[in-house]
Design brief:
mainly alpha; 60% helix
Length: 215
């Protein structure tokens, strides 16, 4: 199977079996999504979704969050990984959005990555999910799944993975392909003992082909 055929197979499979894939983070607007994505770094979406309602109740918008003190916000996210840093990042993010962006969450990657706690992955998530821009956020799931299937070749960093995926996925499908790969990695192509027996991508998967060859 050629690389072009592999991509075609994978995209067709997901289009058929997960046509409405979307983020599992619960949010109502770009502000809430940005807070949730910052909190989700090295933390499960489930835990984030348990935590954000209290934050949004006390800080319903970026203006309210910009006035938060560390001591007031920290207890609300104590159960999240790296709560000290994330508390500082959230307050700093809100203050910069108010001061530099007139209270509007930026809509471009270069602007977003200026915000505290926002790296390239987070910026790609926001622009992809909110604005459906053709940006590919590469987390551990996307990195692992892409390499296992063979969508990427010798990609050593998230950026290398991102660039290879963008090169081969049609622009109009990038924003949903991000969710396809994440969810596949979260529930099927898990880090340890991937569920190959349940996976419909076996005919196109290099990892599975190696398993068959080795057996």
């Amino acid at each position: 199977m050629t690389q072009k055929e592999r991509y075609a197979f994978v995209l067709k499979y997901f289009e058929t079996h997960a046509p409405n894939a979307e983020t599992e983070l619960i949010y109502d607007n770009p502000y809430q999504l940005l807070v949730a994505v910052i909190l989700s770094a090295q933390c499960t979406d489930k835990r984030v979704n348990m935590t954000t309602p209290a934050i949004f109740a006390q800080y319903p918008d970026v203006y309210a969050l910009s006035t938060a003190t560390f001591d007031d916000l920290f207890p609300l996210i104590r159960s999240i990984s790296y709560p000290n840093n994330k508390t500082k990042h959230l307050i700093g993010m809100a203050q910069m959005v108010v001061q530099d962006f007139n209270g509007e969450i930026p809509a471009t990657v270069p602007e977003l990555i200026k915000l505290p706690g926002v790296g390239r992955k987070t910026a790609n998530v926001i622009t992809s999910v909110v604005h459906q821009q053709p940006n590919m956020a590469v987390d551990t799931h996307v990195f692992r799944v892409s390499a296992r299937i063979g969508l990427t070749v010798n990609a050593k960093t998230p950026l290398q993975t991102e660039l290879q995926l963008l090169k081969n996925i049609p622009e109009e499908k990038v924003h949903i392909a991000h969710h396809w790969l994440i969810l596949h990695g979260r529930y099927i192509c898990v880090a340890r003992s991937p569920k190959c027996g349940e996976c419909g991508l076996r005919p196109a998967c290099k990892y599975y082909a190696k398993l068959v060859k080795a057996s």
